[in-house]
Design brief:
Elements lengths: L1 H30 L21 E2 L4 E4 L2 H13 L4 E4 L2 H25 L10 H22 L4 E2 L11 E8 L2 E9 L5 H4 L6 H4 L4 H11 L4 E3 L1 H13 L4 E5 L4 E3 L7 H21 L2 H26 L1 H4 L2 H24 L11 H9 L2 H18 L3 H18 L8 H25 L7 H14 L2 H12 L4 H7 L5 H9 L1 H21 L3 H10 L27 H21 L4 H9 L7 H10 L20 H16 L7 H17 L10 H18 L9
Helix pairs in contact: 1-10, 1-12, 3-4, 3-7, 10-14, 12-14, 13-14, 14-15, 15-16, 16-17, 20-21, 21-22, 21-26, 21-28, 22-24, 22-26, 23-24, 23-25, 26-27, 27-28
Length: 702
């Protein structure tokens, strides 16, 4: 029955993985653009290795980006500014002048008539003179504001302050000449607008001063119209500079793909992929894309199955790898669809960095390769894209090979920036034939790319919390003996704390020898016995007063207390929010072994009585990884070594052999990915380390 249930579980797991593969492949296919792909590889500066290429249809030769940018720059530099007039300002100035003249008339009148021989000016003459000056002022203001005044007109020149500008009146564009009146010219410039017939009849200085006080510009720069006209010109720039007829020879075998031929080939490629949407059977294209995606995803599964069976067995880890791979492809698709020129801003190196930190170098490199190839299928200049991303990704993986500090991300970002820049410089120089036509904005994109890599820091933290993963940085933080839980262990159970340190040292050395996560093994070993701090005196390493509380309880009760430290440890670990990967060491460090001392003592005292063996057996589970298996061995060996009366190499060797062989006989390592060869090497490490710990010192003279 159990065998049938195991087969059913295996079948269900296999079906789930098949669904994973189909689902991810389908999503990738959905992301891919529905278009045919040009079958020729186009690379500037390279020799054309295919047979001669003849135009299969008529198509226009597209202008290069630099040519379009040059035309755009020309229009921007030669764009005439547009201006609009405020028609209400002249009316207000007429009213303002009349009011100002009226208010000051009595004061101004003596100045106006100082040369008059009449000693007494009667009221009628005053009124007539006022009306005359009022009319003259209004006439001058009308003359000044027809067509208007502008504050400042840069880049223009003309005679007598009259300069041509383009004026927008009621949304109608009209070219007029505007009288420019600058602030510095008000006092000396207004007289020019006084009609000749009036100059002999009025005090020109006086009236110019009055008008100068109230004048202000009524012509203003119209930025909206100027930019609208400029944008229209830019939008109307022709993208085509020539025509290739059907049957024309485009390039011959062996020709160098120079700038001219490259632009023709790119134009053919774009036209071909545009027409393929009508000429191709899109269902067949989608089927081909699904097959390509399916093969790629299956390659990832095959790689994981071959080299990382532990990940293959954990659907949560598989889902995570496929999710971040799909996310990388999806982000690339969004940018390519809307802002393809900004493709190199995307920090693709976050994908291999993340997988490297949580798993290993080989898997990170392989997944990055598959993702890059799939994105390269969509990206323009796919070869250059794949080459750039593979080199940068490989360097990123190397720079995070042993990431022990979060500050290493800054170093990695800098290294990736330099790698991108140098690789692009090499490719562009080969393609362009010189360094003068290299696009500097590409280096700016690389800078943003490196900056965005720093966002891997919060992403790693989020992944740890959501998926329950552990990074090396987190393990380093947890392995600090000054953490709250380890400090509490050192204070309440100092003997257990010292024992945990020794177990951590043994486990770290052993894992380093056989291959595995040394930091995980060390951290797990430090926390494996935290459950002992609740009842420390029941554990011999903490008994320093000669009092043993086990003398007051029965053997089965003593066994229950000893066994309970595992459950207590799990509770404490959860209370302090330790990751599940660390809690697993607490669960498994005794597996399903017996509390031998109290079990044998019970048998000796009750040789003929019935015994419930389950009271003396740990609840398990047994170790399921190299790291948990090694910590179990190190824990038992270190604890037993403290009871040795004679610490000779022979005694230590016998102790290590007996304990580990006993655990093997009890099938404690059957679920762990560990071999007999690994166990043999672990024994040698333990013997050597324990011999160094217990070596005999010479006696110093008193």
């Amino acid at each position: 029955m159990e065998k049938k249930q195991g087969i059913r579980r295996n079948n269900q797991d296999f079906i789930l993985k098949i669904l994973f593969i189909i689902l991810i492949s389908g999503l990738i296919t959905y992301i891919f653009p529905r278009e045919g792909k040009f079958k020729y590889d186009i690379r500037k500066g390279r020799r054309w290795l295919q047979k001669e290429l003849v135009a299969p249809f008529d198509f226009g030769i597209q202008k290069s980006e630099s040519e379009i940018a040059e035309e755009t720059s020309y229009y921007q530099q030669n764009q005439e500014p547009f201006y609009s007039a405020d028609t209400l300002i002249p009316r207000r100035k007429v009213q303002q002048f009349a009011s100002l003249l009226s208010n000051r008339w009595n004061t101004l009148l003596p100045e106006i008539t100082k040369n008059d021989t009449t000693t007494v000016i009667h009221s009628g003459l005053k009124d007539s003179l006022f009306a005359f000056y009022r009319s003259a002022g209004i006439a001058i203001i009308d003359s000044i504001y027809n067509p208007g005044i502008i504050e400042y007109l840069p880049g223009k020149s003309g005679e007598s302050g009259i300069m041509p500008v383009i004026l927008v009146q009621k949304k109608v564009i009209d070219s007029k000449k505007l009288r420019i009146l600058q602030i510095s010219d008000i006092a000396s410039g207004i007289w020019r607008f006084i009609p000749a017939s009036l100059k002999t009849n009025i005090d020109t200085t006086l009236i110019c001063n009055l008008i100068g006080e109230i004048l202000e510009p009524n012509i203003f720069y119209d930025e909206e119209t100027t930019q609208s006209i400029l944008q229209t010109k830019v939008d109307n720039i022709s993208r085509i500079k020539g025509l290739v007829r059907k049957g024309d020879l485009i390039i011959s075998e062996g020709d160098i793909t120079n700038e001219e031929k490259y632009q023709i080939l790119i134009s053919l490629k774009d036209e071909f992929e545009t027409q393929s949407g009508f000429a191709f059977n899109l269902q067949h294209v989608a089927a081909g894309q699904f097959l390509l995606a399916l093969i790629s995803v299956m390659m990832i599964f095959a790689f994981i199955f071959t080299f990382r069976k532990d990940i293959y067995a954990d659907n949560r880890k598989l889902f995570f790898i496929l999710l971040i791979t799909l996310s990388s492809i999806f982000v690339a698709f969004l940018v390519l669809r809307n802002y393809s020129q900004w493709l190199y801003i995307i920090p693709f190196c976050i994908l291999p960095i993340t997988i490297r930190i949580f798993y290993d170098t080989r898997l990170a490199l392989f997944v990055h390769l598959i993702a890059t190839l799939l994105i390269g299928y969509m990206a323009p200049n796919g070869y250059e894209f794949v080459l750039l991303q593979m080199i940068a990704g490989f360097i990123a993986i190397i720079s995070t090979y042993s990431m022990r500090h979060r500050s290493q991300l800054f170093i990695t970002a800098g290294i990736v920036l330099v790698t991108y820049s140098l690789t692009y410089l090499a490719i562009a120089t080969i393609q362009e034939g010189n360094m003068y036509h290299i696009k500097l904005n590409t280096f700016i994109m690389f800078g943003f790319n490196a900056f965005f890599i720093l966002f891997a820091y919060p992403m790693l933290y989020a992944f740890e919390k959501v998926f329950g993963f552990l990074s090396e940085v987190t393990l380093l933080e947890l392995s600090d003996t000054n953490t709250r839980l380890l400090r509490e262990l050192a204070e309440k159970a100092p003997g257990t704390f010292q024992h945990s340190l020794q177990v951590a040292n043994l486990a770290e050395e052993a894992i380093y020898e056989i291959g595995g996560n040394t930091l995980l093994a060390r951290t797990g070993a430090l926390y494996h016995d935290v459950g002992k701090m609740d009842m420390p005196l029941y554990f011999i390493e903490n008994q320093n007063t000669g009092i043993n509380p086990h003398d007051e309880v029965s053997f089965d009760e003593s066994a229950r207390i000893i066994i309970s430290h595992v459950e207590r440890g799990i509770e404490k670990a959860k209370k302090h929010n330790l990751p599940d990967a660390i809690i697993d060491f607490i669960r498994t460090h005794h597996g399903t072994t017996k509390v031998q001392y109290f079990y044998q003592s019970y048998l000796n005292d009750f040789p003929e009585g019935e015994i419930d063996e389950t009271q003396f057996i740990y609840n398990g589970p047994i170790p399921f990884s190299k790291e948990t298996a090694v910590v179990m061995m190190a824990d038992s060996v270190e604890a037993a070594s403290r009871s040795l009366k004679i610490t000779t190499p022979e005694a230590i060797e016998e102790l290590v052999e007996n304990i580990i062989n006993g655990q093997m006989q009890q099938n404690q390592f059957v679920n762990a990915d560990i071999t007999f060869r690994d166990i043999s090497r672990i024994k040698k490490i333990f013997k050597k380390k324990l011999s160094n710990i217990y070596h005999v010192r010479i006696e110093y003279p008193k």
